[in-house]
Amino acid sequence: MCGIGVPGQAGPDDNILFAPNLNWKNIDLQKIIEEQFHIPTKIENEANAGAHGEQLYGLEKTSTTKCISALEW
Q1: Domains of the chain: which residue ranges?
Q2: Which SUPFAM superfamilies does the entry link to (predicted)?
Q3: 25 pairs with which residues across the strands?
Q4: Which of 15, 16, 27, 36 has the highest CB neighbour count under 10 A?
């Protein structure tokens, strides 16, 4: 499994709807990665991916503290 956090809005179908820092719009990155590397891929917003990883493997797994990501556009 390959997990990719993108700095932008990820869609429910694991595509990138909008990533302004990369100048990407409506990119099917999941399809590109899966076809190139033959590995299942999950695309998620980078802040959500970081919070999920923290919840599973970091300090958050034993805490009620929430993860906050501050971004500058």
Answers
A1: 2-62
A2: Actin-like ATPase domain
A3: 18
A4: 16
From the CB of residue 62, how many other CB atoms can be counted at a distance below 10 Å? 7
Local structure of 36: helix, strand or coil: helix
Q: Which two structure tokens, joined as six digits, stand for 25?
A: 């719009």
CB 42 within 8 A of CB 1: yes
Gap between the Cα atoms of 1 and 42, Å rounded: 8
Backbone angles phi, psi at 3, to 5 degrees: -110, 130
Whole-structure pTM value: 0.73
The Cα diameter of the chain in Å comes to: 39
- What values do phi and psi take at 38, rounded to 5? 55, 50
